[in-house]
């Protein structure tokens, strides 16, 4: 097993180190880092804007770049949390708790230094996990028939919608709505146009770029405009030499970093629990086992090291179910899968065998990208800090232009812009009603494959719906779904204090 | 996001409206799905999935609205934001609309300028001059990047071609 993994990795490095690929990887992490720093710009919106530009690129380069934006933004997001106390990226909301007090004590540089170190440690572990675990998962998943794939997708969708932020019931509603949006367009089997209402542009289905940019671009702008955020720039003067942590700092941060990494890598394996939950859980755990819990929230270095390591190991681990099973854990992964599908690559367990250059190239690029990010962040910290000072009133109009041109270039058609605007306004209504739009994207991306496999499974079982519980592997997935639903009901009815408190801190983070 | 929801009357039943919207969407999907062939369990037609999903959505909607009416789970939050921001909303919505109109009749440069300028005016601290300069800068940058470097097929100006494409 180790030998094949090392072989694969060697092959991957050869792919990722091709000048063309390494250049796009650099562009990706650079844009990601920049977007992460900018308050009020989201990773999802950025990836969707870049998505149409990758249509003409080679699949490997496209996916390396888009993935780079995702993990690159995590490095930038921490800067925003620590220096400005702004949790602009949900996974880094926890980092504010101890990162900002450290900044106030004049130790912001050290906090950033430790963050970069923890990020790298966490990410490295997440990548290693992927190298060894993904091929094993693939071996299992290759045995799956349509019934198994179908129930696995159901599990992924349920987990993605109930374990994420907000009310689980509303999450499921959004997933179903996403599945319905995935139905729009010509039916694969019969070619019958569905829900097109006579609009020819809709025959190919809803454009994924329009959906993502409407929900995470325009709807977000409508929500955040004229929301006064106090930005305090008094602590943003960080010099390069401030970044170096002392030996005592390192000693204090070492074990929390490792514990955070482990928690993050576990969270990555459960679909639906992405980096945000990982960072919250690891912070809570670290505080619990600490001998001096009262230091937390007042600038404890463990409170920075642990959640950051956790976030990054979870971010890299997120790619495991996405790349090996074709089941995305969150909206970002759904978007990346969408990018693969647009390139004509079927995601799923056969991906590693049919397109090893994508799988191993991506893994190798994670290492390269993470090293680039550390190198980018350390000497350029001054420039990133400058970016923090760009006010929102300049950001969102520029972003709106990128949204328009991005969606236009998907089909070279202005219809897409109108589609995005309509989805955006509806998305804002959903936000006002307390829905989180992320599961829509999950449902939308998985929808067509879910329907196809469901129909095939029913055909194979001669119309017997019980095939899903009669086949053992499928039955396990369905059982897990039932556990998930019953667990949610149990939690709702009992509502112990800890869960409520956890939910409220998270809601706060989400609101901010 | 904390507003004294109770006094807002209808708007405080946010979950009730959330559930209602889901019921409407589900009903719409289920009814429209009837127009396509539903098929049999063994050989499903294109109508099966929309109808099934529509029914599920209606059921979820009823649960959301029901728990709200029963007062079990309603978070009591307002369905309306604390302060309606018509200026911001109008300007942001007008941005892409102008992009479409100017893009159709004027080309990429005027479309970009109009979109950025108008949406920038949505911020209450924006000034005419600041928005103008921002729009100008983004137009120059955007045309250079998307038209000349990335070669997106979108004419920069089409003043001399009044027939819409």
Précis, in short:
The complex is a heterodimer of chains A (512) and B (165). Chain A is an all-alpha fold and 512 residues long.
Element layout with pairings:
The complex is a heterodimer of chains A (512) and B (165).
Chain A: H1 2-16, H2 19-37, H3 43-50, H4 59-84, H5 93-104, H6 108-141, H7 146-162, H8 168-183, E1 185-186, E2 193-194, H9 208-224, H10 247-269, H11 275-289, H12 302-317, H13 319-325, H14 331-342, H15 351-354, H16 356-387, H17 392-411, H18 415-432, H19 438-460, H20 467-470, H21 472-494, H22 497-511
Antiparallel strand pairs in A: 1-2
Helix pairs in contact in A: 1-16, 2-4, 2-16, 3-4, 3-9, 3-14, 3-17, 4-5, 4-6, 4-12, 4-14, 4-16, 5-6, 5-12, 6-10, 6-12, 6-13, 6-16, 7-8, 7-19, 7-21, 8-19, 9-17, 9-18, 9-19, 10-11, 10-12, 11-12, 14-19, 17-18
Chain B: H1 14-33, H2 48-69, H3 86-105, H4 108-120, H5 128-149
Helix pairs in contact in B: 1-2, 3-4, 4-5
Quickly give the structural class of chain B: mainly alpha
Total helix count of chain A?
22
Largest sheet of chain B: none
CA(first)-CA(last) distance of chain A? 45 Å
Average pLDDT of chain A, rounded to a whole number, is 83
CA-based gyration radius of chain B: 24 Å
Question: How many strand segments of chain A?
Answer: 2
Spatial strand order of the main sheet of chain A? 1-2
Number of helices of chain B: 5
Provide keyphrases for this structure.
heterodimer, A: 512 residues, mainly alpha, two-stranded antiparallel ribbon, 1% strand, B: 165 residues, 59% helix, disordered N terminus
Description:
The complex is a heterodimer of chains A (512) and B (165). Chain A is mostly helical and 512 residues long. Chain A has one domain. Helices cover 73% and strands 1% of the residues of chain A. In chain A, strands 1-2 form a two-stranded antiparallel sheet. In chain A, α9 (208-224) runs antiparallel to α19. The radius of gyration of chain A is 22 Å and the shape is globular. Chain B is mostly helical and 165 residues long. Helix content of chain B is 59%, strand content 0%. Chain B has five helices and no strands. Chain B has helices spanning 14-33, 48-69, 86-105, 108-120, 128-149. In chain B, α1 (14-33) packs antiparallel against α2 and α3 packs antiparallel against α4. The longest helix of chain B has 22 residues, at 48-69. The two termini of chain B are 45 Å apart. At the A-B interface, α8, α9, α17, α18 and α19 of A face α1, α2, α3, α4 and α5 of B.
